[in-house]
Amino acid sequence: xxxxxxxxxxxEIVEQFNDSAGAVLTxxxxxxxxxxxxxxxxLGENANYAVVKNTLTxxxxxxxxxxGVDDLLAGPTAIAFINGDVVEAAKGLRDFAKANxxxxxxxxxxxxxxxxxxxxxxLADLESREVLLxxxxxxxxxxxxxAVYLLNAPLSQMARVAGALQSKAEADxxxxxxxxxxxxxxxTTEA
Length: 191
Description:
alpha+beta, five-stranded antiparallel beta sheet, 8 helices, 5 strands, rod-shaped
């Protein structure tokens, strides 16, 4: 391969590192071409799965400011550059690796931090962004409902007291006027 081709390949990998939310490095030794196609399909538009050359990837990672991946670049390596939800892509890779043990997740680089295979597995165990946002919205709605109930409780209690007082006053008008009120009024006017 000519030197300009290598420079173009490095530039492309640098661009993918810069444009992606994360990258998961895998070893694909033992997978058939069909299995690799299935993996790419299972990741969908959420990730771009590419077989890379280790030496070019080391250069590209250095240029992109990605640290901690040099140790992972041994043996046949492919990288899933994740453009969408990192958790969904990690789940897709984990599930594919369970069904196809030849795929080995080496580690990755997510949100500016290097991650080992165990951390990628923990990431895959998280719920998706949509589920977490739904739970957050539900919790906020429940909190707002409780706040509205707590704010309305004194008002409704006051309305019930006023209603009870009105009913009692209709039954016995002296409740509102009171027997001692005119006497108290006379004492204040005489003083």
